[in-house]
UniProtKB/TrEMBL annotation:
<feature type="transmembrane region" description="Helical">
    <location>
        <begin position="224"/>
        <end position="244"/>
    </location>
</feature>
<feature type="transmembrane region" description="Helical">
    <location>
        <begin position="100"/>
        <end position="122"/>
    </location>
</feature>
<keyword id="KW-0472">Membrane</keyword>
<dbReference type="InterPro" id="IPR007136">
    <property type="entry name" value="DUF347"/>
</dbReference>
<keyword id="KW-0812">Transmembrane</keyword>
<feature type="transmembrane region" description="Helical">
    <location>
        <begin position="45"/>
        <end position="68"/>
    </location>
</feature>
<feature type="transmembrane region" description="Helical">
    <location>
        <begin position="193"/>
        <end position="212"/>
    </location>
</feature>
<protein>
    <submittedName>
        <fullName>Membrane-anchored protein</fullName>
    </submittedName>
</protein>
<feature type="transmembrane region" description="Helical">
    <location>
        <begin position="164"/>
        <end position="186"/>
    </location>
</feature>
<keyword id="KW-1133">Transmembrane helix</keyword>
<dbReference type="Pfam" id="PF03988">
    <property type="entry name" value="DUF347"/>
</dbReference>
Amino acid sequence: MKKIVGDTGLPSKVPEVTLTFWIIKIAATTLGETAGDTVTMTMHLGYLIGTAIFATLLVALVAGQVVAKRFHPALYWLTIIASTTAGTTMADFADRSLGIGYAGGSLLLLSCVLASLAAWYATTGSVSVETVANPVAEIFYWVTITFSQTLGTALGDWAADGGLGFGGGAIVFAAALAVLVFLYFWTNISRVVLFWLAFILTRPLGATLGDFFDKPVAEGGLAFSRPLASAVLAAFILLCIVLLPQRAGRHSRSTN
């Protein structure tokens, strides 16, 4: 059996995957959409500058995660928010500014996610989040997270602009997540596979919800203020971090 590099028996530096995790994750992906659009559209900075801002912030926060000695909920979720916001601006830049399109962008980003997971497994012997406790696993984790967030943005935009609309897209992705919940509780499908599928699908759910809140009524949205929606979501996430218990995931020596 291939040695698992992260298998130290020490606490992971990412949270245990519980209902609280998924609640904050969906809120964070929605915030990523509204915050990204606030910078690129409301503030008129454009996709390239927005990507530069959030990518720089993401790199700094990932560095903080890597040097941290233990799991810090606030630092972790700030990094997730930075990754999902950077994913929003990067996907929009690729799809719209570079003209790759939603289908091409989604296929390219799916290839990036799969390549990152394959390289991670080849290097450490596992892609389970329970093994994220050393710099090698952490770098692979955050690279995969960022690609998956960007892929999710492209999928959400593709679904919404492809005829489903923002509300319809949200319903489709919520239904897909419900299927994954069923598979989790009533099948023996790999929990690692289900985790990454759910992680990817929560992003287009957040993207369509965010667009539904802040896009003009004429485009099928509710026309809420992007900065206000972002502030409300950020306050909700902060309350969740403060009030809902979270702890670091722990390694399982049988994780593969």
